Amino acid sequence: MRALVTGAAGFIGSHTVDRLLARGHEVVGIDNFDPYYAAGQKRRNLSRALAHPSFALREGDVRRVEDVRAAFERAQPEVVVHLAAKAGVRASLADPQAYLEVNELGLLHVLEACREGRTPLLLASTSSVYGASAHVPFEESDAADLPLSPYASTKRAAELLAHSYYHLHGLAIAALRFFTVYGPRGRPDMAVASFTRALRAGRSIRLHGEETARDFTYVDDIVDGIEGALRWVQGAPRYGVFNLGRTEPVRVRVLVEELALALGCRASIELGRLEPTESPRTAANIARAAAAFGYAPQVSLAEGLQRWVRWYLESPESPHVAGEE
């Protein structure tokens, strides 16, 4: 199978590329190496893939239609895994226009190219679309029309735009709502990475709410879900939204304590108020993904944190956000 992966050098993108290559597929990746965090980390993410004869990388930006068309021409894809995005809830407050341009306009360019070739599409979405829903665990049939941040609103808009292309043009599309993904190569602004830096530096960690909980999901389980969804979109034209999570929400305070144990550090925790952009609790109902393509997460939080810590300590440079001390 020939696959095009957008956002190929990122966290989930690079793991997806590696998995597809390991399965014997031909992969073209496109990435703009956004300077939000170090380009060097992203290039290291692809070090294995770049040595593989069945992988090609194009540097380009999904906001530029000519870059998207060039990537499609090079890949001649039988499926597209669209992971390119501006991610992060808090960062979207500072630059909402960039989030709109990448997450909506960028998707439009990809959808137009898919329409021309009738190419099946996997679209990365997020549990953030559920907002502060009190119905836990979250189900795909729940209302998702009260987003709490520009990031969440652009991802929900992306789902709706994708549905219109299924409806009007008969594309096969799966929108995958990821739940708090962590693991090796994780973005440095994400909770597990920022907590790791603070713990190793002996800094206190400020949590937003005593009972705040997240459905932390290890990246390999997410890639398993992507693989399953790839099989699902190979059938007749259809549109589906699927939760990909662990289904076991963990209080963020407990995560910090387990991470400190894995690092051999002591945790110092300060409690603050829940931010208006944050949901107090996330948890995935994965029955739909389990029924559609056999999704079944395998990695426990304890094992996932051990894998994260091993990778982090072995990394040539500790991941950090651009401009961070």
Task: Report on this structure.
The protein has a 7-stranded parallel sheet, with helices on both faces. Strands 7-10 form a two-stranded parallel sheet. It has a domain at 2-179 and 218-245 and 283-297: Rossmann fold, CATH 3.40.50.720. It is built from 12 helices and 13 strands. Strand 1 (2-6), helix 1 and strand 2 (26-31) form a beta-alpha-beta unit. The protein has helices at residues 11-22, 39-45, 47-50, 65-75, 91-94, 96-117, 150-169, 191-201, 219-232, 252-263, 287-293, 301-314; strands at 2-6, 26-31, 55-59, 79-82, 121-126, 173-178, 181-182, 205-208, 213-214, 217-218, 239-244, 250-251, 269-272. The protein starts with a strand and ends in an 11-residue tail after the last helix. Helix 1 crosses helix 9, helix 8 (191-201) crosses helix 10 and helix 10 crosses helix 12. By secondary structure, the chain is of the alpha/beta class.
